[in-house]
Amino acid sequence: MIIQAKRLPVIAAALLLAVILLGLAIGAGWTETADRQISHLLSLRVDESDPAFIAFMQAASWIGGGVPRWIIVILLCGLVWHWCGPRCAIALGGASLLSNLASSLLKLGFGRARPDLIDHLDHQTSFSYPSGHATSAAAVYLLLAWLAPPRWRPFAWALAAAMIVLNGFSRIMLGVHWASDIAGGTMLGAAFAMLGAWWTDRHRIPA
C-alpha cells in the first residue's frame, strides 16, 4: 500500500472529523458563496447543454446509486474474493454498507436542502449533505484499488479516480448537490475505504 496500514485508522478518524467540521461550516453558511459559484458554473451550463450530454450525466449518476450501485458492489465483492479471499469481499461489502448508513445518518443530522438553481435532472427524496453517491464511489473504488493485485493496481487506481470524479461532477451538473456535499461524501467514503483496507491488512498478518 502507498500508506502504511497502521496509519490508516488515524487518517480515517481525521477524515471523519473533517466531514463533521465541514457539515458545521456549511450550517454556518461559510461555504455558500463557493458552492453557488461552482453550481452556477456547472449545473446551469448542463441545463443548456446537448440532450445527449445530459443523458450521459444521468446515466453516470444512475450507475452510482440505487439498485445499480448494489449490483456493482456484489460483483466487485466476487472479484476481490477471487483476488484475495473472503475477508477482502467482506471488507468491500462492509465498507459499502457502513459508509452508506453513515451518509444517511449524517444527512438526517445536518438536514441540508438540495440546490435550487435549476430543476433537478435526477429524482431525489433525501437531504443533500453528504452526497451518498460520492460516499459510495470513494468507499468502493478506493478500497477496490487497495485490494487489487499489483499488476491490476494502476488500472484500479485510474478507475477509482474516474468514478469519483464522474460521480461528483454528474451530481453537481444535474443540480442535485452542492460541491461541498461532494467533498464531504468523498472524505466520508475514503475514511471507510481506509478502515476496510486496515481491517483486511491487519488479519493478513499472523498474530
UniProtKB/TrEMBL annotation:
Gene Ontology molecular-function annotations: hydrolase activity
UniProt-listed Enzyme Commission number(s): 3.1.3.-
Keywords per UniProt: Hydrolase, Membrane, Transmembrane, Transmembrane helix
Keyword Membrane: yes
CDD domains: PAP2_like_2
Residue ranges annotated for the Phosphatidic acid phosphatase type 2/haloperoxidase domain, each copy included: 87-197
UniProt-listed Pfam families: PAP2
Keyword Membrane in record: yes
PANTHER family assigned: AT30094P (PTHR14969:SF13), SPHINGOSINE-1-PHOSPHATE PHOSPHOHYDROLASE (PTHR14969)
Name of the protein this chain belongs to: Putative lipid phosphate phosphatase YodM
Organism: uncultured Sphingopyxis sp
